Amino acid sequence: MAALTFTHQNLLHFTPKLMTSKPYLKPKRTKTKLSIQTIRESPQASFTDQFVLQLADSLEDSLPSSSSSSSLPLQKLRDNSSETLLSTQWPSRKDESFRFTDTSFIKNSDINPISHPPNSLDLLEVSRDTQFESFNFVDGFLVDSSFSSSNLPDGVYVGSLSKLSSEGILKRVCELLGDFEWGDLFWSVNGLGAPDLMVVYVPEGCRVENPIYLKYVAVEGADKGSKKMPLSNPRVFVLVEKGGEVGIVEEFVAKVGSECYWTNSVLEVVVGEGAKVSHSYVQNQSLSAAHIKWTSVRQEKTSTYELVEVSTGGKLSRHNVHVQQLGSDTVTELTTFHLSVGDQTQDLHSRIVLDYPRGYSQQLHKCIVAHSSGQAVFDGNVKVNRYAQQTDAGQLTRSLLLEPRATVNVKPNLQIIADDVKCSHGAAISDLEDSQLFYFQARGIDLETAREALVFSFGTEVIDKLPYSFVQKQVKDHVKALLKSRRKGSS
Amino acid sequence: MAWQIQCTASPPPLPSFPPFTLKSTSSISLPLPLPLPLPLPRSSRFRSTHAPSPRPIAASFSAVESTTSTDGLGNSKTPLLEVKGLTAVIAETKQEILKGVDLVIHHGEIHAIMGKNGSGKSTFSKVIVGHPDYEVTGGDVVFKGENLLDMEPEERSLAGLFMSFQSPVEIPGVNNIDFLHMAYNARRKKLGEPELGPLEFYAYIYPKLDLVNMKTDFLNRNVNEGFSGGERKRNEILQLAVLGADLAILDEIDSGLDVDALRDVAKAVNGLLTPTNSVLMITHYRRLLEFIKPTFIHIMENGRIIKTGDSSLAEVLEEKGYTAISAA
């Protein structure tokens, strides 16, 4: 359970930023808060509440007035979220799940929820950029795209909740949406602020051939260094019924020139019995942006969920993954690669909860920190509860620190209550292997080229798992360019 | 190549032959043999390399060497590799492994070093190619007239030295063909030739696969990842075939191979031999020497070469073991 902090070569202790403690601030309001969380020592809490309250107010103001009446599930979600927000504080370093992740960068900015989709000119630009048929979110708003739904099999619905005509699907969405006890403040912020809900529905036994490509584009963004931070809250709900199969590709990018913004995205996935969801998640945000994402997955028995993630962007990027097992014989695979080439924090918090027998879960997390003030955080929790006998759970994290003072905080942890299980986990933090470098040199390849090839190959193991070659290629080019820019910058 | 080496290593007062005018343009690009201890008068040039050795074994050495000076290629006898009194320690522990190795390899010769486990054979080959695990503490190594010990590992490779690793490392995420491509282009760049694009390179490499009896998918796998013992060795020889070398050091190329694979590998090596390039094999077993016939066999013990002889030495070894030789 102990967290490991490593710094490259020159051992530099991780210095937690001291919160400006305001001792004995008069308690402004007393919240009826039955806190299950750790008890705070100072009444600083009331200060944070105030901030969250303001944020909640501005989120409510930003909502399009028309949508409130239309969709019941969304209204329910907003009510619940709003209620939760009132009893949630802005996370500090004292919260275990934010121990190594400093969110003050967001808090100290002038957060401004985006209330309107951008003008049509910008939209045109976005759709022109798109190389592949995709569903586009622009600043959190789902825009009508070129994608023709006729390409989809019968019974499949992909689109806005507001345009959903099928009562049956609506009912299912209503039952399942937002039913999640593990969320944090950011989950609730999205629940309250999401202007719309995109629904991906795959009916029983239906196999969707082509992946559903979701492209999230940030258009409104302030200049780098500016205090302004437009906030968007895209939200997607995926429901795959019994025996269905679908691939979801999520890509996060920004319009050129948009630098400082905050994307706070949520994806909920329900994988029915024997169904399969293959999820690719590519995060290429601006290096000055804040990017927080939740992925919540519920898996019925004999279902399969596979995630491949490559995150390279954002000044602060955090991915929370929660996989909940709802039946036996599930297969869960999480394969993730994080890259910090600048003054960036890349954070993955994952939790896999196994409550039924014969589950299989495999997790590989890799990260490269290639900047002296770059940081990577990994907290990977696998819970093997009492009835999850004969679980096969493996977890491996490997980190590569390429600069002095580059930091990684890894906390791989397995909590096992069942007694008949096969579990393994491991963590390795290193520079490049000397033996591998020498192998290159022995064949006449200079050290610099060898290093570059090895650094790139470190991530390739994950990138190669992306199930679609066009995504693979795009990601490889992007990672290559980032590593190259770093090399130029340093020399 | 042999010509150029000869001319640069020759003492200045040599009369110039007509072909020199032609060769001289290219010989300018050759590194000058500055630290090279120049050979003594031609009549004793072989003896000279071992003459200073105060050890009694020097006698057997020069005896063998002098016999070769009369046969073989005869015309160019400037050594390809000349090792004198090489001592080396493990970088980390400072434990001395090589305790004064002497060895001379000429163009076109095949040498084998045999010896017990821990005698320093593999260390010797690693030190020659500049492995960072070892530190050279004394002695000279001259390769093609240049001081090898001053060169980085990649420079040694580009100079024409190749070592096949005993147990090559896996490099996950790097494609075999990409790796070969990178190495091959590094070589072309060094020679001042334009680099090859992926397609041209594929055309170049494709016929070489037959040589090591490998299928095309071999190229698309990650370097050594999940390779069997035999595949790893074949891959090393494929690299040798692609990159070429004046001196190929084959470190236990026979270990972990069944007879068929060994025959394949040996056939490939034999196929790569030319009158000018040389091979140094490191091995435990005579079996390999039946496939690749050595000109000389050296026995290594306790960080030194204690005996040198022709291929008949292997038979003595087979019959009487290393103890008989070290006692002799």
From TrEMBL, chain A:
SUPFAM superfamilies linked to this entry: Stabilizer of iron transporter SufD (SSF101960)
InterPro entries in UniProt: Fe-S_cluster_assembly_SufBD, SUF_FeS_clus_asmbl_SufBD_core, SUF_FeS_clus_asmbl_SufBD_sf, SUF_FeS_clus_asmbl_SufD, SufBD_N
Originating species: Gossypium stocksii
The protein's name in its UniProt record: Fe-S cluster assembly protein SufD
Domain SUF system FeS cluster assembly SufBD core: 230-458
Gene Ontology biological process terms from the UniProt entry: iron-sulfur cluster assembly
Domain (SUF system FeS cluster assembly SufBD N-terminal): residue spans on this chain: 67-213
Automatic annotation (TrEMBL), chain B:
Keyword entries, A-Z: ATP-binding, Nucleotide-binding
All residue ranges annotated as the ABC transporter domain in the record: 81-327
GO molecular function: ATP binding; ATP hydrolysis activity
CDD domains linked: ABC_FeS_Assembly
Record Pfam families: ABC_tran
UniProt keyword annotation of NAD present: no
Listed PANTHER family: ABC TRANSPORTER I FAMILY MEMBER 6, CHLOROPLASTIC
Protein's UniProt name: ABC transporter domain-containing protein
